[in-house]
Write a structure and sequence with these properties.
There is one protein chain. Helix 2 packs parallel to helix 3. The protein has 366 residues and is α/β, with parallel strands linked by helices. The chain has a six-stranded mixed β-sheet. The protein has a five-stranded mixed β-sheet with strand order 1-4-3-2-15, sandwiched between helices. It contains twelve helices and 15 strands. Bound molecules: zinc ion. The site of zinc ion (ZN) has 4 residues, from helix 11.
Length: 366
């Protein structure tokens, strides 16, 4: 069966939901018809004119990039800069452009997991878990329908906690109501007070699944009026957020760690702050620009923060408490291509998922 562009983007967003992108970001389908059939996918870190040309030449009509080519509103398309030219070339040749950026950074199976694997970290957890992504649903179900309704709610994304699925808490009690004559009650009749054995069920869910959950609840609950509460939670979501922290199997001297980093991440150079006397065991990481996580890394007891895009004055903030290792933005994220290919290969086999050969790093080293 033909695979449409929306099949690919829906699948990618089931792994890295767009709701998890940062407010400044612009992940998602940026150019193209979601209903078009996919002829091939070209995977790249950045989308440039050369990458779009490569897609045209290789018969791929979908470019999956980490960084969005468009961040801000564009007001004209005259080809006066590389963003406009890239978009114009894509539209002229029916090439769809898709970006999966900070949503892929922020999921625990994303960019940072890839870096952690390269460095050899275990015991991984999110460095700055998001506090605003979970909600709680409480609903009341007549006993005979409890299993069916809960199964539908779990199917729609409720009750997943870490490696446990179908989590709920249930307590049995009595629901009361009195239908009016305009009502069409599943149980009872007009003007008569009813007392029904009901199960009160509660479960946690990711806030962005709320629409799916309520649709499943209304479809499967037998009552004309379904009673439920939704409550926002301040719980941190351990599976969503910025950066990651993990441990090396054995502590290692800082210089040896940095040398090892150069080879595992394939670096020409890295920039770092003063070597501290303590061996490295706890390592904080963040693909791309991660200087905003320095205090989180220090608080979490990291011996080193491996990230990119530190400015001169920000290096001072290491302040003898941690080593900052700035390995370069492109270098920290280039393996994201491998991650995207691995994910796409699990699901789609009828067309090519290939790496772009274009080196998009705008920085050269002399
Ligand atoms: Zn980046």
């Amino acid at each position: 069966m033909a695979v449409k562009i929306k099949d690919v983007t829906n699948y990618l967003e089931s792994i890295a939901p767009r709701a998890y992108q940062e407010s400044y970001d612009n992940s998602g389908l940026l150019v193209g018809d979601a209903q078009a059939e996919v002829t091939g996918i070209l995977i790249t870190l950045d989308c440039t004119e050369a990458v779009v040309q490569e897609a045209i030449d290789s018969g791929c009509n979908l470019v999956v990039a980490h960084h969005p080519i468009v961040f801000k509103g564009l007001k004209k398309f005259t080809g006066s800069n590389y963003v406009e030219r890239t978009i114009m070339l894509a539209i002229r040749h029916d090439i769809a452009l898709y970006a999966i950026h900070t949503n892929l950074d922020n999921v625990h199976t994303g960019v940072n997991r890839m870096i952690a694997g390269k460095i050899g970290l275990t015991g991984l957890r999110i460095l700055a878990p998001r506090p605003d992504t979970l909600q709680k649903l409480v609903t009341f179900i007549p006993e005979a329908d409890t299993e069916k309704v809960l199964a539908a709610l779990h199917e729609a994304g409720a009750g997943q906690i870490g490696e446990y699925k179908n989590c709920s808490f249930r307590v049995d009690g009595t629901g009361t109501f009195q239908p009016t004559e305009a009502a069409n009650p599943h149980i009872g009749q007009a003007h008569r007070q009813e007392y029904v054995r009901e199960t009160r069920a509660e479960m946690i869910f990711p806030a962005h699944r709320r629409g799916d959950l309520l649709a499943a609840l209304r479809k499967n609950h037998p009552y004309e009026e379904v009673a439920y509460y939704i409550t926002p939670l301040v719980n941190e979501n351990q599976e969503v957020g910025a950066g990651m922290i993990g441990e090396l199997a054995t502590p290692i001297e800082p210089l040896a760690f940095l040398q090892g980093l150069k080879s595992s991440m394939n670096l020409k150079m890295l920039r770092h702050t003063a070597i501290l006397p303590k061996n490295i065991q706890k390592v904080a990481i963040c693909g791309g620009a991660g200087s905003f996580l320095l205090q989180d890394a220090i608080r979490a007891g990291a011996d080193v923060l491996v990230t990119a895009d530190f400015k001169y004055h920000e290096f001072f903030d290491a302040d003898g408490r941690i080593i900052i290792a700035d390995i370069g933005h492109y270098e920290s994220e280039v393996f994201t291509k491998e991650l995207l290919q691995e994910v796409l290969m699990k699901k789609f086999h009828t067309f090519a998922n290939i790496f772009s050969k274009t080196v998009t790093n705008p920085i050269s080293y002399l």
